[in-house]
Here is the input.
Amino acid sequence: MLMSMISHVLSAWFAFLLPSYATWKALAHRPISEPDLERWGQYWAVVGAFVAVEYVSGWLLDWVPFYWEARTAFLLFLALPQTQGSSWVYATYLQPFLEKNQADIDAGIAAAQTNVLTFIQARLQVFWQTFWDLATKASANPGQPGSAPAAGAGGAQPAAAGGNPVELARSLWASYGSSLIGAFQQAAKPATGAQAASASANGAPAPYDVGASSGVQAHQNAFTAELVNNYSPTASSESVAPSFPEPQVPAA
Here is the structure.
């Protein structure tokens, strides 16, 4: 326990606070010193990889004898200007590993993004179908369960009670749900046109295009119209909900 506390204090000062301040100085002073930026960029790359591994396996490393002493010594080796161990670790291990596996790492990131978006879309679709069934049931039976609603003038069915929470939620979704989905789809859509051309010219990956406000508004109007046209207060519980819009997943 004592060594853990000492290790955290020394690491916080020498491995994080001082390097953070040195990085700020390298960025703030003009002209910018490229050797300093390169050194601290390599340092944070190595420390980031080390912290990521430690977060995943920390529960096991705590049982290793003299782990905190070795951890403190390693972080000091990386951070101290007398040793500059981060530059050696970066050039000897990290850079060759990333260069060799860059294609696999990029493919894994793209696959993870696709799987996450697909999972979220599937869960939202299930939620939307359940919500639609509840809304149609509540509208078809505004009174007691099993009692038929009384017909008004001209055979029209009376509107559901204004205090119905399902009706309130449906109204909020009809007003704002499509905007959220549209923004989500636009955020997941790769940039095209001038942004993609500019990114390609600079050799950088294509950024994401949040889309024009007119495109989001058009999507909102179309989805709201579809929701209103397909919704009927007298629909039965077997009515099918309108299709849930699928987010566009960027190609790997």
